[in-house]
Queue: 2 jobs
Job 1
Amino acid sequence: MELQTIPARFGVAIKLDLGSEIVVTNTHGTQVLDTWAFSMSDPGEYMSMEHTRSRLSKLSPCAGDSLFSNRRRAVLTMVEDTSPGVHDTLLCACNQEIYQELGCGDSHRSCESNLHEALSTIGIKVSVTPAPLNLFMNIPVASDGSIDRRPPESRPGDSVTFKAEMHVVVVFSSCPQDVTPINGVDCIPCDAHYRIKH
Ligand SMILES: [Zn+2]
């Protein structure tokens, strides 16, 4: 499959068959990609950050780790990661209310709206916004339990490869956050890219 674009500030939904692999690339190096995966046979089963942390006994997955569903089954496996491996599982997706808190009014795009908009393009509707795997998002946790929000440590062209452990729909959102430096110090959301490996 040819390289496909995840447009800056927008989301895409991609169906993956069991065993297929997808490579997602941080083309410009600074873009956080909120990532979800739902079972195609029952979208009520989805990749769960809570269950993934519990199964892995760590805060964030590394290459070789699977990511687990709310029913404790492997959904995706992170088979390769060329980035420094800094990803976040703790923070929620940005939503309309967060942008209102930041003084952006009520029309700012968000990862939450990107998720539901992308799913609607393939006829899937879900009533929840699960906690996403925040690829490339740099949220250091201090020993006192406090967290910080820093620009990504990833570099242009860094990529993560996932293998589907069930028939899933994966959603990537190019995070529209342009107020805080979570997408780099320039605060400019960028395109990212993906390719399905057969
Ligand atoms: Zn976001």
Job 2
Amino acid sequence: MEIRMSSPELTDADREAVNRVMQTPNLSMGPEIEAFERAFCALTGANHAIGVNSGTAGLHLCVRAAGVDVSDLVITTPFSFVASTNVILFEKAVPIFVDVDPLTGNIDPDLLRKAVEDLSLGGEAAQKWLPRRLPAVNEGGLRAVKAVLPVDVFGQPADYDPINAIARQYDLAVIEDSCEALGGEYKGRAAGTLGDYGVFAFYPNKQITTGEGGMIITDDQDAADLMRALRNQGRAPGDTWLEHTYLGYNYRLDEMSAALGLSQMDRLETLLQHRAKVADWYAELLAGIEEVTPPQIVPNTTRVSWFVYVIRLSASVNRDRVALILEEKGVPVRPYFSPIHLQPYMRDMFGYQPGDFPVTEDLGNRSLALPFSGTMTKETVASVCQRIAEAVASAGKTA
Ligand SMILES: Cc1ncc(COP(=O)(O)O)c(C=O)c1O
């Protein structure tokens, strides 16, 4: 039995939906993307949805729509997938990291407030939030905080009430990276709608897939118009094919992908329920292993959208050895996340060092993402859990 890190849950209806597009001449910018976008407005209540060809592209367009410019500051966290930071760097703005809540891995709103307050004061107060060094392009001087980019880590929304309160007070845009949280809820409100802009992603390990793809949602008409133009090579409404009002990108989602996504959206509830069942099995079958802490869901999360199943090992357990043993036993696992500030290019650009964000690093050092998808059977989950118990017992302690 091959155990995979993740598997998309595909049906004949999905395959037929893609095939139907293949019988038409409309392979891009046709009816499928429009219907796919409408499905997101219907699901979330957002006024506008803009389909794009990746979650990264979606986040990048939100950064552009928020008016983030060279040397502006954008506050985000280093406990994420690199794209949430990279989209800030694409605009030569400066990501300012704050550490995360140890339970959820989401941005710590108290630290966020402190950072925004200190950065608005400037001088020494601001200095402690800045990286050790800056890329040459930013050396002329940093500007003010322009936006906050919280990440809904592993399908659990961040704590948006305090985040939005700070953002309103200081006139900051809130870009919700909901790439991992389609279908999640915070205090009964849909993930993706919790800031000014929300972005979902549809890589094959996600709750729904389009192969590659993403979706932006927002209530802001002007921003939506701009992002539609930017995804389509900067063509504003009224521009001809060879007129480009803005510097834009090709971030369009093709019709085959949109058709697959739309077909998956029809089954979203079922897909989410399958994933929740697998998460329940993991919780039940890991319960006896003392060194393993399951994912922590906080009361504000009225619905978690299970994207991955990430356990934490006790600090005394040699996590890397456990990972190695599991791989040898045919169980793929990933240390997840690997902190962004310690990626080689981030150390190079900003001089980050181990110890800079201790909660992120601790989570990064102790976490393991287990094989996870809605297609897993209880038997497979049981066999993974059995091997985890064996691996933990034989891995030995950290030095
Ligand atoms: C938190 C987060 N942000 C952004 C992305 C980027 O999405 P994509 O891979 O579709 O560009 C991902 C995808 O894995 C993600 O997990």
